[in-house]
Amino acid sequence: MRQVTVLGSCGAFPESGRACSGFAVDWDGFRVVLDLGYGTLPRLLAHWPDGVVDAVVITHEHPDHCVDLHGLFRVWFYGRPAPAAKVPLYCPPGVLERLQGLEPDVELESVFDVHSLPGVHRVGPFTLSGFELPHYVPNAGVRLQDEVATLAYTGDTAPHPLLADLGRDADLFIVEATDRDGETERPGRNLMTSAEAGHWARRAGARRLMLTHFWPGNDRAASVAAASEAFENDVLAADEGLTVTLDDPRSTR
User: Fold this and answer.
1) In a 10 Å sphere around its CB, with 0-12 CB exposed, 13-18 middle and 19+ buried, how is residue 23 labelled?
2) Phi/psi at 216 (5° precision)
3) Does the CA dihedral 68-71-73-79 come out positive or negative?
4) CA distance 99 to 27
5) What is the mean pLDDT of residues 214-220?
6) Domains defined along the chain, listed by start
7) Residue 108 and residue 104: Cα distance in Å, rounded?
8) pLDDT tens for residues 100-124?
9) For the residues 152-171, what does the mean pLDDT come to?
10) Are 26 and 6 in contact (CB under 8 A)?
11) Which of 85, 126, 171, 247 has the fewest CB atoms within 10 Å distance of its CB?
């Protein structure tokens, strides 16, 4: 079974009772984490109490997407026996440099086996493809795919034609929908609205759309409604603890 559980759904900083960007993916027993922003590590440990993951994917170096990766490093470095093999970590340049300053006397590479994104990698039972998307720092949208299911996730991005390729025919397309007031009028902006998320999910031919990276205080129901005007299939709002099964388009809990 392939399923995705939301660890966090906020952009910038977490609202009370929530966390920033993060998703736990169980791909036929192979455990993958997509992003680990503020407040996601306790939720990850509640989901997988042993803290064991088979791979970590970080889309970019902003702390609302990566800061709890350092916490996961500490779980492995201080709280567990030395692993037989390092944890594969797939991320753009800048992520480790950003986090290394938190604890410069120990090396993050002592736990993580680092692979660069964007790029194409074979990861356990699926192929991981990275797509370079525009943001304030290097950001890699990611696509996980095998012969049965496809999961795609944008990280943070401005509207870009590659979004249609990233989410092409995906069973679930997770798209950032920051939806700040006046977002479309901002010069040089590098984020999207929920209406734009719906547009690109439709262009991609995705089966389902999940909106995420909500600006704290946003009306999530309004975001779903705006996305639904452009995208005729199911639109979900990422909500901490929500699990979506990729094999069955009707399954959420």
Assistant:
1) buried
2) -55, 135
3) negative
4) 28
5) 95
6) 2-245 (3.60.15.10)
7) 9
8) 999 999 999 999 999 999 999 999 9
9) 97
10) no
11) 85
**Strands 2-8 and 243-245: what pairing?**
antiparallel
The token duo for 157 is: 């991005």
For helices 194-204 and 220-230, give the axis angle rounded to 10 degrees.
40
pLDDT tens digits, residue range 2-37?
Answer: 999 999 999 999 999 999 999 999 999 999 999 999
* 55 vs 59: CA distance, rounded Å: 13
Kindly report the three-state secondary structure assignment for every residue of the chain. CEEEEEEECECCCCCCCCCECEEEEEECCEEEEEEECCCHHHHHHHHCCCCCCCEEECCCCCHHHHHHHHHHHHHHHHCCCCCCCCEEEEECCCHHHHHHCCCCCCCHHHCEEEEECCCEEEECCEEEEEEEECCCCCEEEEEEECCCCEEEECCCCCCCCHHHHHCCCCCEEEEECCCCCCHHHCCCCCCCCHHHHHHHHHHHCCCEEEEECECCCCCHHHHHHHHHHHCCCEEEECCCCCEEECCCCCCEC
φ and ψ at 108, to 5 degrees? Answer: -60, -30
- Provide the pLDDT for residue 187: 72
